[in-house]
TrEMBL record:
Entry keyword Membrane: yes
Keywords in alphabetical order: Membrane, Transmembrane, Transmembrane helix, Transport
InterPro entries in the record: Atg22-like, ATG22/LtaA_families, MFS_dom, MFS_trans_sf
Domain of life per record: Bacteria
Chief place where the protein resides: membrane
Transmembrane segments: 21-44, 80-100, 112-128, 134-156, 176-198, 204-226, 265-287, 299-318, 330-349, 355-378, 390-413, 419-438
Organism: Nocardioides panacisoli
PANTHER family in the cross-refs: AUTOPHAGY-RELATED PROTEIN 22 (PTHR23519:SF1)
Pfam families: ATG22
Protein name: MFS transporter
Entry membrane topology: Multi-pass membrane protein
Major facilitator superfamily (MFS) profile domain residues: 33-445
Length: 456
């Protein structure tokens, strides 16, 4: 008879995975409440006052404010700030990823970036009167820091899950994020829409909502910090000099060596295109609904909430299907689904609320699934010990070209005078992503990534 000690590692991994989900829950509130819904209109109003536009709540104010010597239209200021944060992130994140890979304390990197980001996010509470400058700095810095925290967060996925578990873990985390962001958004929209009954003016209700998102982000980050473990760095390439010098050295080594992993590089480029299409659809949906389909604000708010909660189920559904058919195949099918949806969106009838909401449900299903599985699929294409840096490149691809889709959307509208051809033009991004996805060989990519990385 043989005796032994039971293997507790699967239980430890499961415990850490449950803790890991909470950071998706925590940071999604910032992206949903702040960046997607409430910040833009408030900034336009505040900057508009400074420019002399009065209290106009929309983006029609063409008067300008001075930003570092540049005269920018108040109505366009949120877009410019988002674009600046996006471009800055594309340069900052790879350096952060290199530092993360050289550290055995990824959870603390994630936490300090998150808490710093939440601090700057909380400063948005002071976006009032005609004082837009502090809010502009706060949203840019908090956006960059949020991206830095996600580099560590994604890298932790590799430490706490086996390859066969990644699709399930990533999908549940993403679903948890949609749920958390949706719950706080419901509360905040109720406060904003019912501000009179609460004895608040509308701007104060919006500012309190922005503050609540920062507190939510900081508070729920405590859970993964306390429950996750530190995992030692593995497969780190030797570099001389201090931490920053070693990080730059590792970054350049990875960029030079990326062509050695052609499948990984092909998927990154594919993700760059189809994710740009996804982000542009998210950005343009409310514009399309209000300006082209002439739907009321209440319908648009209902659609935002519907998408948030249906995407929760979509992420779980795709995760379950991926366990049987594989993440690559599900992402490919999801990309085809996106192509069909943007073509059908062109033909949505004016003022038809059920058709618009049905389109929102379909978008939510494929959105939740493709985003969650893209993260997990990329994780198995990363060379050992390079999770932080490769996920930084992944996030840089996500952010570095997210202006291309909106640029095409805007140009097509300017040329045609209609949002219908503008929305269907986005099919190009999904088509390019699909062509590249079909060239991805998952088995080859996993074999290449599993090989020992070359040491210097």
């Amino acid at each position: 008879m043989t005796t032994g000690i039971a293997d507790l590692e699967p239980l430890n991994r499961a415990r850490e995975q449950r803790a890991w989900y909470w950071y998706d829950w925590a940071n999604s509130a910032f992206y949903t409440t702040v960046l997607t819904v409430l910040f833009g209109p408030l900034m336009i109003t505040v900057a508009g006052r400074a420019a002399g536009c009065g209290d106009s709540p929309d983006d029609t104010c063409s008067k300008t404010v001075d930003v570092l010597g540049l005269h920018l239209a108040a109505g366009s200021l949120p877009s410019y700030l988002t674009s600046f944060a996006t471009i800055a992130s594309a340069f900052v994140l790879p350096i952060v990823g290199a530092m993360v890979d050289r550290s055995g304390r990824k959870r603390l990197h994630m936490a300090w970036f998150a808490w710093a980001g939440a601090f700057f996010g909380a400063l948005l509470f002071f976006l009032t009167g005609d004082h837009w400058q502090l809010g502009a700095v706060a949203v840019v810095v908090s956006s960059i820091l949020a991206g830095c925290s996600l580099v560590s967060y994604y890298a932790i996925l590799v430490d706490i899950s086996l390859e066969r578990e990644r699709d399930r873990v990533s999908s549940r985390g993403w679903a948890f994020g949609y749920l958390g962001g949706g719950v706080l958004l419901v509360v905040n929209l109720a406060m904003v829409l019912g501000h009179g009954a609460l004895g608040l003016d509308k701007e104060l209700a919006v500012r309190l909502s922005l503050l609540s998102a920062a507190l939510w982000w900081a508070g729920f980050t405590v859970i993964p910090v306390l429950r996750l473990r530190d995992h030692p760095a593995q497969g780190v390439v030797a570099e001389s000099g201090g931490l920053l010098a070693r990080s730059f050295g590792q970054l350049f080594t990875t960029l030079r060596g990326l062509p050695r992993y052609p499948v990984t590089m092909t998927f990154l480029i594919a993700y760059l295109f189809y994710n740009d299409g996804i982000q542009t659809v998210i950005y343009s949906a409310s514009i399309y609904g209000s300006k082209q389909l002439h739907l009321d604000e209440t319908v648009l708010i209902a659609a935002i909430l519907l998408i948030q909660f249906v995407a929760f189920g979509g992420a779980l559904l795709f995760g379950r299907v991926a366990e049987r058919y594989g993440a690559h195949r599900c992402i490919t099918v999801g990309t085809v689904g996106w192509m069909v949806l943007v073509v059908l969106a062109m033909f949505l009838p004016d003022r038809n609320v059920p058709a618009f909401l049905l389109a929102g449900v379909a978008i939510a299903i494929v959105m939740g699934g493709t985003q969650a599985l893209s993260r997990s699929f990329f994780s198995v294409l990363i060379p050992r010990g390079r999770a932080g840096e490769y996920f930084a490149l992944y996030n840089a691809c996500e952010r570095g070209t997210s202006w291309l889709g909106t640029l095409v959307f805007g140009l097509v509208f300017q040329l045609t005078g209609s949002y219908r051809p503008a929305i269907v033009s986005l099919v190009v991004f999904f088509a390019l992503g699909l062509v590249l996805l079909l060239r991805v060989d998952p088995e080859r990519g996993i074999r290449e990534a599993a090989a020992e990385p070359a040491a210097v």
